[in-house]
Input
Amino acid sequence: MKGIQMGIKEAERLGVMREVDGRRMTLKRASEELGLSLRQTKRIRRRYLEFGEKGILSRHRGKRSANRILEHIKDETISLLINEYPDFGPTFAQEKLQQLHGLSISSETLRKWMIEVGLWKPKRVKQQYTHPRRTRRSRFGELLQGDGSHHDWFEGRANKCCLTLFVDDATSMITVGRFSPTETTQAYSECLREHLDCYGRPLAMYVDRHSTFRVNREEIKSGTGITHFGGVLKSLDIELICAHSPQAKGRVERKNGVLQDRLIKDMRLANIRSIEEGNLFLKGWIEEHNKRFGKKAA
Output
C-alpha cells in the first residue's frame, strides 16, 4: 500500500497474513512462522481484516515513549558534560554522572547526546591489523609486565613525568604504580621493592629494551653485559625477558592507555598538583581499578 513504510517485522507479518488469505497457511502455522502465540496471531489477524495493511502497523508508532528521559534532565546532563566533562568518553562520563551527580543514564544515550552537541565524534572503522594475544599465564605472579609511560599526567599543574607501572600477566591487575621525574633504574627498583613487600617474588619480568634492563652500547658489551637492575633480578632468581615490540607486552601497554584516559581525569577532579600527591592518590585509585578491571587467574 502506497504511503506506508513498514519495518522488517511488520512486512513479515503482512506476508504471512496474505498466505492465510490464500488459504496456503493456517493460523496455527502462521503463529509458528511468526514466533507468536496463537492468541496473539488471532489478534493480529482481526486487526488486519478490520483495517487492512494499516492494521499490521504497531499502534505505538508516532507516540512518544513512556520511558523517555524528561527534557530538563537531558538539558541538565548536557550542561554538566559541557562544563565539567568535555573531554570524557561516554562510558567514563556515565560513571562520573552516576557517582557524583546521581544521574542514571546509559552510556549509549550519553554517546548520542554528546554527538548532537559536538562533544564526541563517531569513530571511523580502522583497518584491522591482527596481533593475536598471547595466552595469559595461569597463576598470579608467574609473569610481571613492566613499563614506564612519559606523559603530561597533571595537565600542566605540574611538570611532565613518568609513571612506572607493573601489571600481572595472569590477572591484568596493577600491582605497583609510581610517578617519578624520569624513567630510571631507581624508579624501577623502588617499584620492585614495593611489589616484593606486597606480593612476593615473581618468576619472570617482561619489559622493553630500555637501557635500564639491557646493555645497548656495543663498546661495553665486552664487560658483564648486564645492567644494575638486571643484576638485581638475577640475584633474586627472577627471569628477565626483553620484548622486541610494544605488542609483545600488550597488557601493560593497553593499561597505560587506559590510565592516560581515566587516571588523568580522576586526578583533575581531585585537583592533584604534584608527584607526591599523585603517588598518594594512586594507591587508593589502583585498588578500586583492580576491583573493577582485574581478571580471575586461570
